[in-house]
Amino acid sequence: MRAKLIVFPIRARNWCFTRSIDHSLPPPPSSSASSFKELWNNINNAEKSFNAKAELCTDYVADKMNNGWVTLEKAPDGSLKKKIHGLGLWLLSRVKPSEIFLKSISKEVTGVEIVYPSSLNAQLVRRRLRHIAMRGTTVHRKFFYGSVSLIPLSSALSILPLPNVAFFWILYRSYSHWRALQGSEKLFQLVSNSSNSSITFTDKKGTEHSDSQSESLSSDKPHCILSPSEELEKLVHQEDGNDGLSRDTITEICKLYNLNTKDVIKYEKSIF
């Protein structure tokens, strides 16, 4: 599956990195176990690798958290569960957009098409994506281990006669950092020049030019396609001043490329 990534400067040195939402793709099939007994049996399968077992545990926890979140969302207004849901929305709004972007690079992604304003240098765009992937690997690995270490401490709060919000939030952050870490490693692999990754540049006429010395005639489709866009260039540079893009322009770009407007706006104040 090829993911379309949209890159453009949004304010001064702040660039937006986001993935286009493809509504035509069906949701990936769930591989999570329906019960803890089934999960335990799958983990004890000697044929599965450590990474495969870790994925099973992660999918199981994610499935349970999603079910719990849906329950909170459907709670009646004014109830404690609804207030907890509101608190969760507030906490989620403070998650950095780069983390959301890296999480969108799932294990099903086998290639990326990078769309950017035609005035930007293609090598600069790719270097900045590599920088985000490299730093994401370091940052989210550190925070993943930190969040996991807090799970036993937060679970002790379950003795209180209140919902253990801290435990579920730390559990979610552990899962989120794990997914961002996996996305960082995947993105770095796709946008780097190596024997396992080929880079293709698309010029204004739509002609593709390979940039991988190890690419053979029998190789698969390129892992990374850099596509300069005149249309995105016009939208980004239709405004003067140093205050960045207006909300109307951001909304127009989001509609054009099927982006999440709230996530894009976060980049106004976030460099990484």
Automatic annotation (TrEMBL):
Cross-referenced Pfam families: Mit_KHE1 (PF10173)
Region (Disordered): 201-223
Keywords: Membrane, Transmembrane, Transmembrane helix
Record field: compositional bias (Basic and acidic residues): 202-223
Gene Ontology biological process terms from the UniProt entry: potassium ion transport; proton transmembrane transport
Gene Ontology CC: one annotated term: mitochondrial inner membrane
Keyword Transmembrane helix: yes
Membrane spanning residue stretches: 143-172
PANTHER family: K+-H+ EXCHANGE-LIKE PROTEIN, TRANSMEMBRANE PROTEIN
Protein name in the entry: K+-H+ exchange-like protein
Naturally occurring in which organism (per UniProt): Pisum sativum (Garden pea)
Lineage of origin: Eukaryota, Viridiplantae, Streptophyta, Embryophyta, Tracheophyta
